[in-house]
Write a structure and sequence with these properties.
330 residues; four-stranded antiparallel beta sheet; 10 helices; alpha/beta
């Protein structure tokens, strides 16, 4: 029997999530935020998790290193294999080495993640002390700041976060995430609070560092424009489920699920004659009001009567291409 940490091709990816279920709540009521999510990320690739806010992307990412608040959040099913280890069954002592040493995180709005009472050099040294104590030196911090493109790093290590711009703060977060040489970098909306020019610089930096260091990246975004430039493969999430998964080029050029099509149609297109964008009607359902049948059917432009009654399964409709919709069109 094939080990569970391998994928269907017998390859051992750096990350394999299988039938993950995450619930929030207590004894009287539970809300399911992630419902049966399955995907894997190969070593050295960029995998994008796409969807609107509230679809379960961040909860899925935090589950990888068990960063969700217990006992409010609990794992009701599934497995997460990270570099050959099932993190859902790992003791806390082992997780301390996995966090930062195997997987590191970059979050949106770095100003909320950096402690204003400590210098940027201290933030990076804290990560080094835990996983690479012999390297917790000013020289190594300067090297990391140079790696992420911060000028005059010898001076900047003594700066406090408020003395840096948003783009420089995000570079510090990336330097801290890379300090322990992780095999997987999780970037959760890393450019949301930045202007367009700085966004492009941060994405270029992530692409360059991936090639230089050989790490895999899980990039979480609601912006399919970013996916075009960054992703090798893409999974689209809606209401806690994967609704489509495919290589990036295929999913952008020929989306099969109506939700994926709607996301692509909502991207502003320069030079388009129309004055108005094409928004998706309605909102992502709240966890206590998940629709019956297909979860997207109340907002779907091609819904049929059966969609409200039958919950579709995620099926492989082409090699390497998965869709949760029985009425997809090529």
């Amino acid at each position: 029997m094939m080990p569970k940490e391998t994928n269907s091709n017998g390859v051992v990816p750096i990350l394999r999530i299988q039938d993950l279920i995450v619930e929030f709540g207590g004894h009287t009521r539970t809300l399911r935020a992630v419902d049966g999510v399955t995907f894997d990320i190969n070593r050295g690739e960029t995998f994008c998790l796409v969807g609107e806010s509230g679809c379960g992307k961040t909860v899925t990412a935090l589950a990888i290193a068990r960063l969700l608040p217990a006992p409010t959040a609990h794992f009701a099913g599934g497995e997460i294999w990270l570099n050959g280890t099932n993190t859902l069954k790992s003791p806390e002592s082992e997780l301390r080495h996995i966090r930062g040493g195997v997987v590191s995180y970059i979050f949106q709005e770095p100003g909320n993640s950096l402690n204003p009472a400590f210098t940027v050099g201290s933030h990076i040294k804290d990560a080094l002390r835990l996983h690479r104590p012999a390297s917790a030196t000013d020289e190594e911090v300067v090297r990391l700041l140079k790696l992420v493109g911060i000028s005059a790093p010898e001076m900047r290590i003594r700066n406090y976060p408020h003395q840096m711009s948003g783009g420089m703060q995000q570079r510090v977060m990336i330097a801290a995430a890379l300090a322990c040489e992780p095999k997987l970098l999780v970037a959760d909306e890393p450019t949301t609070a930045l202007d367009a020019t700085i966004q492009a610089q941060i994405l270029d930096l992530l692409r360059e560092l991936k090639q230089r260091l050989g790490m895999a990246i899980l990039l979480i975004t609601h912006n399919l424009g970013i996916v075009k430039d960054m992703a090798d493969r893409v999974a689209v999430m809606y209401a806690g489920q994967i609704v489509e998964s495919a290589p990036a080029r295929e999913i952008l050029c020929r989306p099969l699920h109506p939700y994926t099509r709607a996301l692509i149609d909502a991207i502003p297109k320069f030079g388009r004659a129309e004055d108005r964008l094409a928004p998706i009607p309605g909102n992502v359902p709240s966890l206590d009001a998940i629709p019956s049948g297909c979860r997207f059917h109340p907002r779907c432009a091609v819904t049929r009567s059966e969609c409200a009654r039958v919950a579709p399964e995620l099926k492989e409709v082409e090699p390497g291409r998965w869709v949760r919709c029985p009425y997809w069109q090529q």
